[in-house]
Specification:
Oligomer: single chain
Radius of gyration: 18 Å
Structural class: mainly alpha
Number of helices: 6
Strand content: under 5%
Strand order of the largest sheet: 1-2
Length: 199
């Protein structure tokens, strides 16, 4: 994955804010999240630290689905699998495909299920999709100038069409750092769990 901003790809256009936004998330991915995913196994990926966790489960069609939306009034603990799928599929995957993908037809928005990548069912597939989705997103936003960041997202933003594009970029970064930090904590807890469970 390339983790540097090409500040000269649109000569003459002001990209001060673009550079700072891309640099911030690049640094987080390179220095924090991706190193924390090194050595992730399928067992740890699916580990449920408590009863009734939300996770990634097999679906009837032979693929995988992300558990969510149960109306039982409970806050569910989520697994590393759930959090990685949330980042790679929902947070970065759908938005990068909607705004910067090769096939983004008019009349669709970022909530259109056609932009959702297949949910990964293994640790390797999830990390690979995270890297792929992030590369597409960062390459897309690095091509925006400051004027575009300040302009409304537009119809592809759905109910957030009137918000500045920069607000969407900040939201994606915040979600990535938020769930990435939680993945790190779960990895710490899993390491202690394995240590205490070993004979």
């Amino acid at each position: 994955m390339r983790l540097s901003v090409d500040r000269d790809n649109l000569p003459g256009m002001t990209k001060i804010w673009t550079s700072m936004l891309v640099d911030q998330l690049d640094f987080y991915m390179a220095a924090h999240l991706l190193p924390r995913l090194t050595g992730l196994t399928d067992e740890e990926f699916r580990w449920e630290p408590t009863d009734d966790c939300w996770s990634v489960r097999p679906d009837p069609a032979g693929g995988w689905t992300v558990e969510e939306g149960r109306d039982d009034g409970r806050e569910h603990v989520t697994t590393i699998a759930w959090r990685l799928a949330h980042l790679a599929v929902g947070n970065l995957g759908t938005r990068s495909l909607c705004f910067f993908g090769p096939d983004s037809p008019e009349g669709t928005d970022m909530f259109d299920p056609r932009y959702q990548p297949p949910v990964p069912g293994t640790a390797k597939a999830a990390v690979g999709l995270l890297e792929e989705s992030y590369a597409r997103w960062r390459d897309g936003i690095s091509g925006l100038d400051d004027e575009r960041l300040a302009a409304p997202v537009g119809p592809k933003g759905g109910p957030f069409a009137a918000d500045p594009m920069g607000a969407l970029v900040l939201h994606v970064s915040r979600e990535t750092m938020h769930h990435g930090g939680e993945i790190g904590v779960l990895r710490d807890l899993y390491r202690e769990y394995r240590t205490r469970s070993s004979p």
